[in-house]
Amino acid sequence: MKINDKFLYRNKDDDFALKKALDNLQLSGTSSIIEEYEEKLRDFFGSKYAVAVSSGTSAIHCALYALGIREGDEVLIPPTAPIMTAIPVLQQKAIPIFVDTNKDNFGFDIQALKKSITKKAKAIICVPMWGYPFDYDELLDVCESYNISLIEDTAQAHCTTYNNKNLGTIGNIGCFSTHDRKILPTGEGGFILTNDKNQYESIKSFIQFGYMTGNIFGTNYKLSTLQATLGMSRIKKIDWQLDVRMKNAKLILDNLTNKNIKEIVYPKNSNPNYYSLVLQVNKSYNKVKNLNEDMVKNGIPTDIVRYNYQPMYKYPLFKQFEKECLNAEHLSKTIITIPVHPNINDNNIDYIVDYLNKIDFKGENIGAHSSKVM
Ligand SMILES: *Cc1c(COP(=O)(O)O)cnc(C)c1O
To answer: Which of 6, 100, 222, 351 has its CA 20 to 30 A from that of 74?
Structure first.
């Protein structure tokens, strides 16, 4: 069996939405439809302001800009994030400081976080990978006591909640992606949430070349109207998606009997959005690596293989900022990801459960099945 690793979809509403944009004639990033979209985002996720932008990466760049991060400032990030989280830090000529995570989830190791804060530290970017929440209370305490801003890279975490609040509305600025693979897909795109009027105004100016006055720096990060209309039409599909993803994840978890595998941990007062189901394996690194490769051979896609997942400082671009983070290394070497999006059917779920329950960790050749891809 070969399981679909992407959830790309098409519904009739999109046709009407796009027609509305085409009839509007103005397709650029300054049409009234953009404002309409921003109002929808603001109301749906629960923040005072929303700004539509061209990508999740540009959203993070805007956040750093609005918080006044400039050359030589330090920005604390988890090494378990993808490189897109840190590329905007380099764009601002700031310095990414890698801070260790917990051993069993993507939250910061709070002691390591406190130790990493210097006078030059201006912001923390937290990254709930695959939509998994972590302890925000202790994180917010640190931000407050050290007077440091919190940026949430919630590119994968639309509608993940903590204390009944959406992630991306808890820190100072939330940065979302609406890339094809994300929970709200518009092809390419992103948006920013904030409650701060000054940040909102500064970002609005930044994404349209400082309103072309030539007085202040800015660039072009505007989202096009076509994408905004798709976003407005597809925002209505988020709740349905969350329901199906949750149901699929629960089905797998409820039937998982393999004692060596469990879901990664998250706080009681929080709910993941199941962007993917993330499982942690209680076995040696080599065996988990073999398992990830075996999954792919057996038609179960895993992001660990797909993205050659490893701590960010292992990539040449970030090598100079390397700081060994043992928990993050452990975490990245012991997880597998399972797709639970709405294109996964009951047969797929049975197959995944059967596969997970039959894994034989005894030999070096992980996997109870020889290659079963059909
Ligand atoms: C997708 C993603 C980004 C980048 O978003 P783009 O829209 O592709 O630029 C940043 N951070 C995380 C965690 C992501 O998953």
So the answer is: 222
